[in-house]
From TrEMBL:
Pathway this chain belongs to: Cofactor biosynthesis; tetrahydrofolate biosynthesis; 2-amino-4-hydroxy-6-hydroxymethyl-7,8-dihydropteridine diphosphate from 7,8-dihydroneopterin triphosphate: step 3/4
Cellular compartments per GO CC: cytoplasm
Record gene name: folB
Protein name as it appears in the record: 7,8-dihydroneopterin aldolase
Keywords of the record: Folate biosynthesis, Lyase
Domain Dihydroneopterin aldolase/epimerase residues, every copy: 4-116
EC number(s) per entry: 4.1.2.25
The species this protein was found in: Rufibacter immobilis
Annotated PANTHER family: DIHYDRONEOPTERIN ALDOLASE 1-RELATED
An example Gene Ontology molecular-function term: dihydroneopterin aldolase activity
InterPro entries, per the entry: Dihydroneopterin_aldolase, FolB_dom, GTP-CH-I_C/QueF
Gene3D superfamilies: 3.30.1130.10
Broadest EC class assigned to this enzyme: lyase
Length: 123
């Protein structure tokens, strides 16, 4: 078993519970971790036996471009997209952060982390 991670992805997007947030936009961060058997890819040096990072990034970019009210919903959509594209992944963990959330005080970021295994998606 091994892990593939894309850390520190940043996007400007139009998410938020309040309508105003969806109009003015904000900066968001995403960290994505996949648990996967990497032995075949390691032995063969064949991209078809692992996760293509570029495809993974584009999947996250697509979900971040679709407005959502909740960070939880964004994380859920990203996880579903990973399992649709790469059904051989064993587990997905995603953290979605909103920088400088409108809380009425100083807060660098609000962050939600979700984690799902392959069995969850197959239900």
């Amino acid at each position: 078993m091994g892990q593939i991670a894309l850390e520190g992805m940043e996007f400007f997007a139009f998410h938020g519970f309040y309508d105003e947030e969806q109009k003015i936009g904000n900066k968001y961060g995403v960290d994505l971790y996949l648990q996967i058997d990497l032995q075949d890819a390691a032995a063969s040096d064949n991209l078809d036996q692992t996760v293509n990072y570029e495809v993974l990034y584009k999947l996250v970019l697509h979900e971040m471009s679709q407005p959502a009210r909740l960070l939880e919903h964004l994380g859920h959509r990203i996880i579903e997209g990973v399992y649709r594209e790469f059904p051989f992944v064993e587990q997905v963990k995603v953290s979605v952060s909103k920088f400088n959330p409108p809380l009425g005080g100083i807060c660098h970021k609000a962050k939600v982390t979700l984690e799902k295994n392959k069995e969850w998606y197959q239900l």
